[in-house]
């Protein structure tokens, strides 16, 4: 009998899982993705798309490497390149962070990454106009880059459709029907769809979807804000992405195709769901200007040409929750990418698809199981050190 897979969510997680399932699975797999709005219209559509590997945790470094490898070779997915550009990534620390920073770079190298340590006096050769004051050490990853999250998600959708996946937009999932141990059907605005397997890739709404099957997923909302600036001189597309953790607040800069620069990482307040998002206001833009004034003064007075904010979904250890929870046999969660989940989505999509098909995943999915919190096995990393955080 054909296996019917229902996927909830048309962001980069749901669509990458749909694509890899349709690539690896047999013809009798019937895959349907349900998106309540338009594809990539929530967190994925707001993402800065930075692809880097500077993380504290070994598992996350390996996941980020696999994600980047898949984005590098993205043309094989429906012919789109996903907007991937390999501009490199430069990260800075102050004197207090140097020991941890060196240990992290050693860990990255052991995982097979190319990483160079950069003295403060050499920063100018990576980023013209940079003021090195307060920087004790930098690290440069030449294999890092950025991609266009909207293109990546919609290219996955195109590839999945070509492989026979049905993608239904404007179709909210309103309930999951269970028989006590498994989900038997997905209830949507268009009616009931029987399923053998259901994937919960509903992003910030993953908690609500899981609760429909009686599963409690700890997922909080935070708001990530960015602004796009246009300086007198372009921030070239080959210029490295900068992540500055050498002074507070943290800040990242990423080139936009066309010479603008995207600035973020400065403000990430928790979201009061009843009140909604704060949005980008004058105080955020002032903080951007002040931060640039000290680190990249040539952009301090640059014109703000765009700005936005989006919800990021954050778990207690800031790492994803992936896999089948205890008590429900056929529900696959793929949630909680926080402010770093885009780059890892292709790696999760590939490995979750393999796991659903009963094959060995390429990355360590077990480390991301929901039960790790109760087992005292939470992952270290993102929330511990500021320079392991967003993007
Ligand atoms: C401003 C910003 C900057 C970021 N920058 C980076 C970065 O530089 N690098 C990086 O790696 N990551 C970054 N991230 C994080 C990254 O974008 C996310 O981790 C990733 O996009 C999450 O994708 P998702 O598919 O889980 O969620 P989403 O894209 O939110 O997709 C979930 C989908 O589920 C749908 N849905 C919800 N409920 C239902 C329902 N009941 N029925 C049907 N559909 C439903 C939603 O409409 C939505 O489209 C950033 C995020 C933000 C907001």
Automatic annotation (TrEMBL):
Q: Which Pfam families match?
A: DAO (PF01266)
Q: Name one GO cellular component term.
A: cytoplasm
Q: Which part of the chain is the FAD dependent oxidoreductase domain? A: 5-353
Record keyword Transmembrane present: no
- State the superkingdom: Archaea
Gene3D superfamilies named among the record's database cross-references: D-Amino Acid Oxidase, subunit A, domain 2, FAD/NAD(P)-binding domain
Q: Which GO terms describe its molecular function?
A: oxidoreductase activity
Q: Which InterPro entries match?
A: FAD-dep_OxRdtase, FAD/NAD-bd_sf
Q: Does the keyword Plastid apply?
A: no
What are the UniProt keywords, alphabetically?
Oxidoreductase
Q: Which PANTHER family match?
A: FAD-DEPENDENT OXIDOREDUCTASE DOMAIN-CONTAINING PROTEIN 1, SARCOSINE DEHYDROGENASE-RELATED
Q: What is this protein called?
A: FAD dependent oxidoreductase
What is the source species?
A: Natronorubrum tibetense GA33
